[in-house]
What does this fold into?
Amino acid sequence: MKIDLDLWFDDWVRIVEGSIAAQQEKPFLLIALRVQKCWAEMMLNCKALRAMGVENVATMSSTERNILLAAKSSARRHLRLIIVEPDFYLAKLKYAMDFVWAKCAFSFLLLLKLSRLLPERDEEYQELLEHGNRLVDELSKAGSNTNQSGAGNIYLQILKVSIEKYGRALRELQQPSPSGSTATSPFWELFDAQADLQWFVPEQFVSEWDFPGLNLFYFPTAWQGFFGDFSLAM
It folds into this structure.
């Protein structure tokens, strides 16, 4: 599937690059193609994990974990593409259907979730916050220039709420307590993207549009054994 996707992308890039009629729209079309490729890679990897029946990141094999890391990498590239050149993509959302707004919100929330499940570096948290705030700003501009009712604004609102919660949790981690010590609670205990994902229009995300990744979680195998022994004792 990855080879097919690369061929599809290369073919369309050649078509756009070689089209005289598309010269004026070329920057917009090329960004849209790259965004769509990142989205497709993210969906393919998440759906591959779902097909394998794996949900608990703690029990994943190295191959399965690499698939999840590939999904996270695609989600990160997706985010960077749409915020680096907002005039070429996000500004066009004022003409977009609800599904496109949902994709922007879902891809960022999924990236937050994957950053929780598979943390890679401390700088990642602050970078996500900055990129998330920029995404909200650009989506707000696009939303203010449209007569779209309801749905797009709902997706934007849940994105705002999630990023605000994420920012508060990050500040609590970084600020020392009155006693001079830093916060002792694990950062991700203060913020749960999973709860937001489950609350945010779950029927559309799961049933209508079939966005994968909502079922992923991290539960140490040692605790599984503990609860198994506990249930036997009962």
